[in-house]
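Cross-posting from the modeling subforum.

Setting up a comparison between two proteins and wanted a second pair of eyes on the formatting. Protein 1 (sequence, then structure tokens):
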Amino acid sequence: MNDQELKTMRNSFNTVKNKSKPFLDTPRTIELQEKVKDIKINAINNMDELMDEAINSFKKNDINVFKAQNDLKAQEIILNLVKNEKNNEYIAKSKSNTLGEIQISKFLKNNGYELIETDLGDRILQLKKGDNSPVHPTGPASHLDVEEIKNIVNGALNVNLKADPKEIMEFVKKDVLEKVEKSDIGISGANSIASEDGSIVLIHNEGNISLIASKKLHIVVAGIDKFVKTIEDAVSIAKLETIYATGSAVTSYMNVISGPSKTADIEKKLLKNMYGAEKVVVILLDNGRSKANKECLYCIGCGNCIISCPVYNAIGNEFGFNNYLGGRGVAMSNYIKNTETSYDSGLFKCTLCGLCSINCPVSIPTNEIIEKLRNYSQKQGFSCEAHKKIKDNINKKDSPY
């Protein structure tokens, strides 16, 4: 990220901070925070039981379920599903950190399929040549100003748009819709899964997930940390995430998917395949979650930790791992990949100031997790060179200098 992108990102973050302020200290939000903390703690502590319950509920709801131990298995399952669909020139995708985690866009492209991002920010990054990683979970292109976005879209789509947000949005929307109409496949993540109900809950502001969910085949990839007990629990999480992620009281759209499209409007006889998906497939991804620090899995995906992080505000998305940004992303990379990946993602860049934990709506102690991982990484042979010099100086000279 260059200096201008960092400046734009910080300005975008300040906008979210200012929009969120009126909500954060209200009794309603504080009560919601405590409720969501309890929901997440109970859910992560009972993850295996909730997963078993969800699988049984999915089957009752005519939803197909697969388990994927790692990213390679998830990719394999998706590829087999895609191959079985005739109209697969384009695959429509919504914003998802989990799909970023398994690098699904790159994987499908390498296998001859073109995946179309339907979220405006993700689509802009998709059209950008190089350095197209997101900077925020709900505002992936928050580091790009309108002039740079204009140049990206004009260059990629061979048009001559002005640096006008409305004009850019309308053109990108038109282009996306033309491609998505040619697809029978939609792929998304999930904000939460209500195990008791066998329901997938997705939140969005653009309305694009409704397009994804209406495709003939809707593939949902969700981490096993997304389980909660009920739809009501999932809605509570969605409300809190929206406040912290966008500064709005509630999201524009909330999709609850509990099975393929069906109707019983003719003599109350059940008929499948009305307007929505003919087939819904859920892929439950472990990828290190079952061995991860439980507190790391409390995350609701709002991104408020990176908004308040001094390191992230200084250097941007090089502090983090794939779509998991900042200190929590560094920590997750240790479980998703390995200690070396965590080290390379910025394990020793963190100042351990704790601002991420203070500003986390569910109080994830990321700085404490990072500190423990540093201790572990040093035992594995990964440590900061500057720290080694200080240690050697102390041993040799009784001074760090």
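Protein 2 (same layout):
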Amino acid sequence: MAVTFHRAPVADIAPLTLYRILWMRVLVFVVEQDAAYPEIDGRDIEPGAELLWASEGDEVLATLRLLREPANTRIGRVATAPHARGRGIAADLMREALEVVDAEASGIPVLLDAQAHLAGWYGRFGFVVSGAPFAEDGIPHVPMRRTRLATDRLVLGEWTRSDEDRAFLFDMYRRPEVRRFLGTGQVMTDAAEVDALLDRWRGLADGILGVRAVSTPGGRRLGSVLLKRIPWSSGVAAGRDDDVEIGWHFHPDAWGEGYATEAAAAVLALAHRHGIRRVVAVTNPANAASGAVAERIGMRLEGSTRDYYDAECVLYVSDDASRA
């Protein structure tokens, strides 16, 4: 008998099927893992919540749930019946869930709390560790995050600590032509610096905000687009809300192809769609190429400012007025 996949809110699931789903979750999370906790926690009936499950005839083989949170989607309660393990059913169900998320909310982070020994399994689907380890009901866990935003030519996702990602970032930031207009202009000289950079980027991730890796659908790495809170210059911040900055760093091998414009335009549109009304970009006055990208994605030139980074910058703004 073929395995079939289903998805529905709790209110639309047949009572016997819902019973089998919850029975299996209790069997796995409470009985098998010897964790006395409220498995049925009230979140299954939140607005937008859905259960996904795989079945063979009337038998439920695997399940997970999707929770739609204000700035994220959350996956949880991923469970497979003991006798159905090793058949790839949970992986197929995860792919089904991610297809749903990518279709309805492209670019929105997907979060989950993984049991630590399963972090590698979730990594197969693009999840990366996004915070410090913690224990839940005596079981080690790690928070994980996945984002995916696609354009005509590009895929924007998460930077990982794979050898390939780390080598690319080191190669990009060791180049004077890349670092010339960034901060002090100092280039990377030690590959270990990449880990510190990834740690800083992990701390910037907050809902829509974060640093997205830009690559082609075939996996060629091109650069990064940043969407983050920008630091005010000394003495400027009093009484002012945080501004959100967009920026782009691309490898010289990717220059001149319009990739920065395409990726930055997608992230800027994502920010505005999800309630970030004002986005700024600041460039070194000598960095004409970066200023041209800002103008191509529709940002308004505001002139020189010293409001950010304690430095003289050229300011570009995208807000409701400039979009109109």
